[in-house]
Design brief:
Helix content: under 10%
Strand order of the largest sheet: 1-2-4-6-7-8-10-12-14
Number of helices: 1
Amino acid sequence: MSEKWRLKDLSGEIRPSLQELKSLRYLDLSGNTFEGVPIPNFFKSLKNLQYLNLSYGGFSGVVPPTLGNLSNLQFLDLSGWSLLVKDLEWVDGGIKQASIFYGVAPTILLAFRNLTGSTIPASIGNFCNLKHLDVSSNALTGNLPEFLNEIKNCSSEGVLPELRELDLSWNQLKGRLPEWLSQLEKLTDLDLEDNKFQGPIPASFGIFRNLERMWLAQNELNGSLPVSFGQLSELVSLHVSWNYLTGILSEQYFSKLTSQLHGQLPKLLNLTSLLVVDFSSNLFKGPVPLPNTNCSLLYLSNNTLSGSIPPNMGESILDLVFLSLSGNQISGEIPKSIGYMRKLEMIDLSRNRGLLFGLSNLTLLHILDLAENNLSGSIPSTLGDLIAMYQKHNISGLVAASAHIDMENGTAIIKAVGQDKLIVRAKDQDLEYAKSLPLVIIIDLSSNNFSCEFPKEIIKLQGLMFLNLSRNHINGSIPQDISMLHELESLDL
């Protein structure tokens, strides 16, 4: 039944004549106002029923255990605040063996509320096709049952082989978290928060292949967070607050996480003694924040930050070496205070919304990326003042092995790998530079609206190795003395 035609606010008596619908497969009475009537016992006669949704329908009283005889049932939702379920043993009736509907593997959803004082029967482990189990916000007690020994009828190996979502939150379950949970290979959501679970988090929890959300907050867990959590490559949300966890978090814990943070960063990032500040590739919005520490590398790329660069940025972080604000929605002028950053070697402001620039004071700058900014007019002559690009330099100027600059649509993708080499990907080729070789020097002004002749000032930059002026409106002829750029390896016009 579609949402368009579903009736709401039904009330009154549900007449026994409904059981004459022998072929009925789908019955949805949710979201109505049956004013406290009990679930009719004659529902047990609807033998072909595959979908039964009674959630928040105004029903009250005890759920009849005879629902367990509906052998074809694939979906059952009894959520609500007036229904009582004395126990779940009746669930081990016929509904555990769901049949195939139109050739599609059946999806069973079990959702219960008000299971006062009940325990979870191990027999639920026999639900071979169960995909969603929600018994949250009840008064369930006891330990999590061992399902492994209960499986007798599943063709697939492993416990609850089709389970995607398991919600046992807001109960009174206790004991240790069982190892068998990690064998739920298709699990994407695990919510065990607000119970009384004790002991350490099993290291095996780090082997979930598809887990996106794990909530273990508000329990009595102790020990340290397993290092194996760093292998949860699909994890988006992890809640472990309000426990008794201890230890130190290192990079190992986040080695394969691809989660994205969101919200607005404070204008002043309250950090202490950090050389690298990296909030890149998330969903942060709002103005560009400033760290309160004089860091060396600041990564804020690939977010949705907007507004202008703070005018006092150059005064606040004088020792900055690498600045990456690419892939945001920043506009306006590059503040003059950036010129105070005499140690600045790399700037990536590509893929923003129009940044004018005057960078003549940056005597150490050797990588400049302003691609895709809708800049127009002439290319500023102040580019010729970037004296770090005049000649060869030692590659020892790079300060961190993790430093990287991604010019995905421009001339090069540069990555500092380890402490001994720098790899530049240019025109589908990987070029490797060792520390003893000249420092890589790049200018990328591609994909703007510059309309001018080839800037003669660039000829001064005889250390230039990669130059990209493509996808602009450069006109006239290429200067003959471009041959003076002896280090040039890639020229894209």
